[in-house]
Amino acid sequence: MLKTQVNDIDLAYEDRGKGDVLVLLHGLGSTKKDWDAQVPFFSKTHRVITVDLRGHGESSKPQDAYSVELMTEDIKQLLDQLNIKKATIIGFSMGGAVAFEMAAQHPEYLDNLVIVNSGPDFNNMGEIGEDLLKSRTTFLENKGLDALSKEISFNMFPEDHQTELRNEFEIRCKNNDYNAYYKSFVTLMAWGLGDRIKEITTRTLVIASDMDYTPVAFKEEYINRMQNATLAVIKNSRHGVVLDQPDAFNLELQKFLKA
């Protein structure tokens, strides 16, 4: 693991392989370990950088400095420090919000954009978003992070054969700092691209699971507002597709990168 100071925090990251650069951004409450099934596969052909976003993993956990915009600036400064001029930015869930913001604010850094079970407007998801914000904050305040970690992990990996994935993810989630998790969540739910999505010209792949929290139709709707985006749907998968269907995910991403 490597660390560097960016944007007034210490950012933990790993840097494997050589070639065109892939930057992999994890989901809320997790770490760069979300990508354990991707790093060995893609580092054979690419330079693969995985990051612990601020407030997560081994990166700094400030008291109040949380937002998608701050996380995006962290990634931009990391690329500058590593002298990386172009990269494919791949974001899963919350990481997808950071990837979207990077494409909107700093398109000159992107070769490609890959969005995984995420969306462009967490602040405008209608009833799904309102229910998620209310239920999760209430759950956190009343039952705590340990109980929430157990519930999230079971919802992501409910099958009998997924016990190991479930337990590993639950441990990762439990290890979060409560304040960092809470503020990452509420600032994420306040973020949205709005009409800026129409201005993104970067070649984009959206990967959706057929059993994600938000339906495939949700992804189809925002893809139709983009200039250069395509959709791949992975079957028999829930929110954590990079973990529960890694082979199918890797093949879709590889196909996109080779095209």
From TrEMBL:
This is Pimeloyl-ACP methyl ester carboxylesterase. InterPro entries: AB_hydrolase_1, AB_hydrolase_fold, AB_hydrolase_sf. It comes from the Bacteria. Pfam families: Abhydrolase_1. Coiled coil: none annotated. SUPFAM superfamilies: alpha/beta-Hydrolases (SSF53474). Residues 21-182 form the AB hydrolase-1 domain. GO terms for cellular component: membrane. It comes from Winogradskyella eximia.
